[in-house]
Amino acid sequence: MVLNAYDRLTDRLKGAGDWFAPLGLRLLLAWEFWTAGTGKLGAGSEAPGWFVNQDFVAPFGLLSPNLNWFLVTWGEILAAIALLLGLFTRFFAFSLVVITVVAIAAVHWPADWDSLAQLWEGYSVSRVMDDGEFRGNYRIPLLFLAMTVPLVFWGGGKLSLDHLVNKLSGRGDRFLDRREDPTAFALAVFFFGLIAVYLISLWGAVLLLVSAILFGYGLFLKRQSSA
Questions:
Q1: Do 82 and 173 lie in a common domain?
Q2: Which residues, at least 6 apart from 68, have a Cβ–Cβ distance to it below 8 Å?
Q3: Which of 20, 139, 184, 186 pairs as cysteine with 214 (C-beta 3.0–4.6 A)?
Q4: Residue-number span of the structural domain to which 205 is assigned
């Protein structure tokens, strides 16, 4: 009886969650990135000195500082508007993942660390220094990254323009469609591998390798089932 009551409760929570669960993330991230983007816009079209001196990861390191400044400024502004409306949520959430990972790697990540314990010292809001060495201050952007990832996987929820567009196009029932197969997990591992490769390269390489193996296994199963 207790389990049945619990199941009925969780069924309703999941039903409501389809509408409201992503909304808090969308609104908070929209505000934070709108503030960041408009702040950069107000600073002018020329990249400031602190930005020019950053060592950005590839391929952004190949671009001029002013172009990178333009991309991050309007990337944050447009993504904030999109998240607020729940429009093209996954695309703009992924764009913010890229912006955030590049910012962590260029600005907030320690340039040198010898152990995970030493790396963890940088999980801080303020700049952590040790014997003149910068140990990092990646806590806030890492939290933003963790908040953005669910929107990449789940989308904006039913309380979004994305869902409205799907309903108007006769695809509203697609919201509950799921496919758990090796290819799905290959995509997920590939996603996390792309993030890791810019921060801890070895971990990223291992994840990308695992992703390739899962993708190949998915193709193998597909061919087996169609044979």
A1: yes
A2: 47, 51, 56, 60
A3: 186
A4: 179-227
Same domain, 171 and 185: no
What local confidence, expressed as pLDDT, does residue 89 receive?
96
Residues 51 and 152 placed together within one structural domain of the fold: yes
pLDDT at 227: 66
16-45 core/surface letters (b: 16 or more CB in 10 A; e: else) = eebeebbbebbeebbebbbebbeebeeeee
- Residue of higher predicted confidence among 51 and 23: 23
CA distances from 18 to 15, 61, 92, 141 (A): 5, 39, 19, 26
- SS3 track for the chain: CHHHHHHHHHHHHHHHHHHHHHHHHHHHHHHHHHHHHHHHHHCCCCCCHHHHCCCCCCCHHHCCHHHHHHHHHHHHHHHHHHHHHCCCHHHHHHHHHHHHHHHHHHHHCCCCCCCHHHHHCCCCCCCEEECCEEEECCHHHHHHHHHHHHHHHHCCCCCCHHHHHHHHCCCHHHHHCCCCCHHHHHHHHHHHHHHHHCCCHHHHHHHHHHHHHHHHHHHHHHHHHHC
* pLDDT tens, position by position, 173-184: 777 778 888 999
Is 189 inside any structural domain? yes
79-101: per-residue pLDDT in tens?
999 999 999 999 999 999 999 99
